[in-house]
Amino acid sequence: MTRLIRPYGDTTGDGMVQLSFTLPVPYGARASAAAVRLAGEMGLEPASVVHSRAMGPDFTFFILYGKARHLIDFDAIEEPAGREYPALSVKQVNLAIRGGLGRRLVVVGACVGTDAHTVGIDAILNVKGFAGEKGLEHYREMRVVNLGAQVPVEELAARARAEGADAVLVSQVVTQRDAHLRNARELAAAFGEPRPLLVVGGPRFDTVTAADLGVDRVFGRGTTPGEVASYLVHALGLPVPGESPEGETGAAPAGSGTAGSGTAGPVTAGSGTEGAHE
């Protein structure tokens, strides 16, 4: 059985698509002709430029509208793998940590390299959280140290060891020249073994797995604090009291997690914040 589909614009199956891109050529009629030809090579035919604007003397930005020639068989698309661990409530996470570790779980997070975009790491760590869920600072049995933005990988590794981190969370929004992938691999190399759980996340990690980067878990766009907290409990092998709540679902980013071991060390002074709620 096959179900052939193409994009929907005005009517079913018309294949109409809008896309935008920038070409490294001066603004003008010749540039627009080049944009239309490129759209044709991309499978949009006919295509037309509906907007163009000079981006400095040597670049032009385009918005085009065109008809996709290609069809895909939707029935041949496999359902992505689901989350392999249960979604836990804040109370379940706290009880699992208290019963399994007998101490607070230490999480150190940062944006590494030149990345100054803290929206991702703050959404997971800050008490205000994201998508209606409280961040990890809200969890009574977690101690969260948020180092902020533009943290060198070596500095993050040193601080994580000093804090005795059980898990290190890194958010990467900047992806130019695959900086996010390079930073993730440098993170894995900086820790060696034994090491805490290494978790990376951001909107452009969907083409790689944790094994590709040498980390324990990769989270993608839309990840919530509860998903991360539930994963930490799962990856550390902590016993979960009671059943997982019904109806809780979330994104299932690529990668698989394995338990890591935190390295003990003295706590150093810094700007870490601690959760104090159940």
TrEMBL record:
Q: Where is the composition biased (Low complexity)?
A: 241-256
Q: Where is the B12-binding domain?
A: 104-243
SUPFAM superfamilies linked: Cobalamin (vitamin B12)-binding domain (SSF52242), D-lysine 5,6-aminomutase beta subunit KamE, N-terminal domain (SSF117778)
- Name the segments for region: Disordered: 240-278
Q: Which domain of life is it from?
A: Bacteria
Positions in coiled-coil regions: none
Q: Sorted alphabetically, which InterPro entries does this protein's record hold?
A: Cobalamin-bd, Cobalamin-bd_sf, KamE_N, KamE_N_sf
Name of this chain's protein: Lysine 2,3-aminomutase
Pfam families given in the database record: B12-binding, OAM_dimer
GO molecular function terms listed in the Swiss-Prot or TrEMBL record: cobalamin binding; metal ion binding; protein dimerization activity
